[in-house]
From TrEMBL:
Protein's recorded name: Cobalamin biosynthesis protein CobD
Organism taxonomic ancestry: Bacteria, Pseudomonadati, Pseudomonadota, Gammaproteobacteria, Pseudomonadales
Compartments it resides in: Cell membrane
Species: Halopseudomonas sabulinigri
Pfam families: CobD_Cbib
Keyword terms: Cell membrane, Cobalamin biosynthesis, Membrane, Transmembrane, Transmembrane helix
Cleavable signal peptide: none
Length: 302
């Protein structure tokens, strides 16, 4: 455990300084492998085939990570690099900040193009408010998924833990849709992601409350999260919306269908500057996590 603590700190530093790899990103290669499996196995939209595809996509790489992490010295270096490529802190900023800048310049076409890269909803007709809302929701939820949950599973199980989590989360993003093609095939991927995110999501919701308006964040989490369709996105987004004193949720278009989602948070609808405030909330929460990791490491050697 003590070796994982400095590894986590170093990986977070690498993410902060370098951002995600611009070329040869392992998750891009994994995405191609997952796409190949889906095309070969998803012919009858069956849960069993979806479970087989999930196992073939995730388990070999998890076992490989366990083996590589067991090497003396090099195993620790591998663990650092493994967490580094699984973290998405700087990537989150790199994708969200240009949207805020485009909105500040009243360039809605560019803002719609950018937000379309990070959300699954239809962005072609979004207003300034709709773009800002979609971006803030993505920052809060993806901050939990791509940053804090990866740290959580790394600290708990090391390199194989973060590989298991990150690949499962990627499959949920690719297959976890309630569409005719993925309703059954993607069910195992969606449920595995729900299970793996259950504890991290609630720790993130607590972090958002502590690093923002705690009272509003807690009330929103307690009273609104259960109405959201995702058991993990609900607490994260409700707490984040309350902590920022913003109102999220409402109508959105997914796969050509208009969906009315429950309201989360309170206060005004998001604007361009609120995207930057959401990023600040995620960064403050990350600093709290890293400070706790540092303190545990120091006291474990005292």
């Amino acid at each position: 455990m003590t070796g994982l603590l400095p590894a986590a700190l170093l990986a977070a530093l690498l993410d902060r300084l370098l951002g995600e790899p611009s070329r040869w990103h392992p998750l891009v290669g994994f995405g191609r492998w997952a796409q190949y499996l889906e095309q070969r196995l998803n012919r009858h939209n069956s849960i069993l085939r979806g479970a087989l595809a999930w196992a073939l996509a995730v388990l070999p790489f998890t076992v490989l990570a366990y083996w590589l992490a067991s090497w003396p010295v090099l195993g620790w270096v591998f663990a650092v690099l493994c967490l580094y490529v699984c973290l998405g802190g700087q990537s989150l900023t790199a994708h969200a900040r240009p949207i805020a800048k485009a909105l500040q310049r009243k360039n809605l076409p560019l803002a719609r193009e950018w937000v379309g890269r990070i959300v699954s909803r239809d962005t072609r007709q979004l207003s300034e408010e709709g773009i800002a809302k979609a971006t803030v929701e993505s920052v809060l939820e993806n901050g939990s998924d791509a940053l804090f949950a990866a740290l959580f599973w790394f600290l708990l199980l090391g390199a194989p833990g973060v590989v298991l989590y990150r690949l499962s989360n990627t499959l949920d993003a690719m297959w976890g849709y309630r569409t005719p093609r993925f309703l059954l095939f993607g069910r195992v991927a969606a449920r595995m992601d729900d299970v793996l995110n259950y504890l991290p999501a609630r720790l993130v919701a607590l972090s958002y409350c502590l690093c923002g308006d705690a009272g509003s964040g807690w009330r929103s989490w307690r009273t609104q999260a259960a109405a959201w369709d995702s058991p993990n996105a609900g607490p994260v987004m409700a707490a984040g919306a309350g902590a920022l004193q913003l109102q999220l949720g409402g109508a959105a278009v997914y796969h050509g269908e208009s969906v009315t989602r429950p309201t989360l948070g309170l206060g005004a609808a998001p604007r361009a500057q609120d995207i930057l405030r959401a990023l600040q909330l995620v960064r403050r929460s990350l600093r709290v996590w890293l400070l706790l990791i540092l303190l545990v490491w120091i006291f474990s050697h005292a």
